[in-house]
Amino acid sequence: MKFNLNIYKIALLFILVAIASSCKKYLVEKDLGNFVKSNYFTSSSQAQTFVNGIYSSLYMFQNGDAYGESPFITMELFAGHTTSLGQSVNNNNVINNRTDAVNPGFEDVWSNSYKAISNANIALENLPGISMDATLKNKLLGETYFLRAFFYYHLARLYGDVPLITTSITVNSPNLYPTRTPVSQVYDVIIKDLLAAEASPLPETDQTGRVSLGAVRTLLASVYLTTAGYPLQKTANYALAAAEAQKVLPSYTLFEKYDYLHDNPHKNQGELIFQSQYLVGVSTNAIAQLTLPFNLPVGAYGDHLGGMIPTNQFFNSYEPGDLRTQERQFYFSSYPQFGSPNNTVVFGVHALYKYFHVESALGNGQCDENWTFLRLPEAMLIYAEASNEVNGPTPDAYTQINKIRARAQLQPLSGLTKEQFRIAIWKERYHELAYENKAYFDIQRTHQIYNVINNTFGDAVTTPNEQGVTMKSQYYLWPIPQREIATNNKLTQNIGW
Predict the structure, then answer these.
(1) Half-sphere exposure of residue 3, counting CA atoms within 13 Å on the CB side?
(2) Contact partners, residue 396, CB within 8 Å, separation at least 6
(3) Is this prediction's pTM over 0.90?
């Protein structure tokens, strides 16, 4: 479908209207009194505007600073295949397994997730009472259920047992200072929310940045796959993961070019299922700056931060001939100097072209590249992995992984045992979904890390990575932020932190 930039801008401007409730504590909403209860949730436009504000919390994952710190980078550093050439002490402490609970990144994700959940709870309580078009109301409810599940899913995977809050909280609420809830119960609510979203009148796909049934089903498939592994090991959920992922496959298509993953004309299209939305003049980010080599002039940016640089060993773990390793596909090692295009800047590393934003690099340095949370290859690989766990390698499972390999100009897989196919899928996840915040979560659910030097998998807490670091068992989870424990003495810390 041809991209209509004007329609995209109008839809995005609508989505980006933020109705953020500021709070003094992470679960405390302002006491808005009659404003919320009787004056605000009275019309269709108010309902839509409030739900739009929940979307704005997605930005926290890409927030960055001049030291090269950002939640999306921190999650990659935990996986062990990334160096950080910037100035961040926190980033280097994560890489070397010596960070602690006062790392500000842990607080950012925790507090912003709970702010989003608080607003979702308010919406779910108040939307049903608004006199408005029933289909639109139920669609907004579906979006809100998805968003609450999305943020809880990140909390559950990153912190384990977390407070489970499904109603609005005020300063007078008995649950103002909650205890931690067993993660199994948190997952029960996540699944319940996603099933509610799946039953709502959401469209199959969406090209404006809103939640679609494709996003709901892909996230639900991911949740089922995760809960089939550690720590819950509900292996019956493999079949559920395969069933949900299979529903997604007919509605999306793989891009012909990898460039389309990170350019402006293809936002929310093709294989892109769910993204956070950016637009110059509305909201921009530093994704490109954070992933460019440190202090090299390859774009119109004030800083080149080097916060997330792949290790050479990971780059070399791709199969010979893999298109993704060719220059300016997933990676690049040189680029014309900004302002002097006849000069070539040689990096000395393989940086992520996957996140290079040509429009801003060659323009005014204002990056409005979307960040992708969910895309088709993940659904394809979830289907292949989950169905393999149930039935072993099937023709349909081979079809999905081989489509991804064909685009990368690799030979198709065939004739593998169940165990061999499992490893092949895990490798494909690492290589296709590289640096998309999937690897750390794969380590958590499998307790295996990709030993790229030997091209195999090993126990996560006994196998050194390519940087010579062996992951501590405490690193299966992030610590509860120290500030939250200081504020709420009912919270306990994760083991080892």
Answers:
(1) 13
(2) 383, 387
(3) yes
Minimal CA–CA distance to 441: which of 215, 194, 154?
A: 154
Give alpha helix (H) positions in 160-212. 183-198
Q: What is the pLDDT of residues 386-397, one digit of tens each?
A: 999 999 999 999
Q: Is the dihedral of CA 193, 198, 201, 202 positive or negative?
A: positive
Q: Which residue has the tokens 């959401």?
A: 202
380-411 core/surface letters (b: 16 or more CB in 10 A; e: else): bbbbbbbbbbbeebeeebbebbbbbbebbebe
Pair of tokens at residue 117: 């959940």
d(C-alpha 313, C-alpha 106), whole Å: 28
- DSSP secondary structure letter of residue 37: I
- Strands (DSSP E) contained in 270-426 are 272-276, 309-310, 331-337, 340-352, 371-375
What residues contact residue 412 under an 8 Å CB cut-off, 6+ apart?
Answer: 398, 402, 405, 406
- Work out the angle at residue 475's Cα, subtended by the Cα atoms of residues 82 and 54, and round it to the nearest 5 degrees: 80
* Beta strand segments in 290-410, E: 309-310, 331-337, 340-352, 371-375
Tokens standing for 291? 């992933």
The CA distance from 18 to 33, in Å, is 20
Token digits of residue 327: 């220059």
Query: Coil, strand, or helix at residue 201?
Result: coil
* 423-459 confidence digits (pLDDT tens): 999 999 999 999 999 999 999 999 999 999 999 999 9
DSSP code of 60?
G
Helix (H, G, I), strand (E, B) or coil at 76: helix
Q: 211 vs 40, 267, 275, CA distance in Å?
A: 23, 14, 9
Residue 96 CA to residue 35 CA, distance in Å, equals 49
Q: Could you check whether the bond before residue 231 is cis, i.e. omega within 30 degrees of 0?
A: yes
